[in-house]
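W.,

You were right to be curious about this one. When I first looked at the sequence I had no strong expectations either way, so I just let the prediction run and decided to look at it fresh. Below is the sequence, 253 residues in total, followed by the output.
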Amino acid sequence: MTGTIVLIVFVLFILLNTFKILREYERGVVFRLGRYVGTRGPGLIILIPLFEKMVKVTLRTVALDVPPQEVITKDNVSVKVNAVMYFQVFLPDKAVIAVEDYMYATSQMGQTTLRSILGEHELDDLLSNREKINQMLQKVIDERTDPWGVKVSAVEVKDVDLPEGMRRAMAKQAEAERERRAKVIHADGEFQASAKLKDAATVMASEPVTVQLRYLQTLTEIAVEKNSTIIFPLPIEFMKYFTQILDRNEKKA
C-alpha cells in the first residue's frame, strides 16, 4: 500500500514537471543542467524531468510607477518628482540571463535617470517643456536597458511637487504678469482713444458749428436721465476773456 502511494506521488511529480502550458503572452526560458537551451512557447511545453528547468517571462507591456524622487534643478530649486514608465520584454533570454531581476533593475534605472536628467534642466523647463523631457528620459533609459532585452516605450512625468515658498513666489509672479498685461492693454486703449480724439478735434476745428451741436447733444443726453442739475460746459477761451478783464482792472488799480 505504501509503495503504491509513493509510486502515485512520483508519477504526479513527473507529470507536473514534464508538461507546462504557456499563454500567448508568455515565453519560457529553458535551462538543461544549468545551461541555456532555448526559448519556448506559447502552448504546451514538454520538459525533461529533473534535468530541465523553465523560467516564465511575460511579453506584455508593464506600467511601472517610479517613486517620488528629490531633484535639485539647474537653478538650485529642490522639487519632488514622480513618473510612470512603460516597457516590455522583447528578448526573454536576455531578460533572464543578462540581469538578475529585470523588473527591479529597470525600476532603479528609471529612478537614477530621472534624477540625472531633471537635474540638468531649470524649473521653468521642467514645467513648460515636459513633453521634450519625457522623450529624453525614454531615449536614455531605453538605451541603457536594451542589453537586458527590455524595450522602454514611454516615460511620463506625472507630478512636480514644489516647495510652499516657491508656490507663493510663482503666484506673485503670475499676478504681477497679469497686472502688467492689464496696464499695457489700458495704455494701448488710451493711446487709441487719444488718436481718435485728435481726429475729432481736427474735424471740429474746421467747422466751429460742430462744437455747438456737440453741446446740444450732450444736454439732450443729460435731460434723458431726468437729473435736477445740468452742467453746461463753457469754452476755455471764454474763461480767458474774463481773466484778461480782471488783469486790466488790477493794473488800473
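Here's what jumped out at me. The first helix runs from residue 2 to 18. And, maybe more interesting for your project: Residues 62-167 form a domain with the Tetrahydropterin Synthase; Chain A fold (CATH 3.30.479.30).

Coffee later to discuss?

I.
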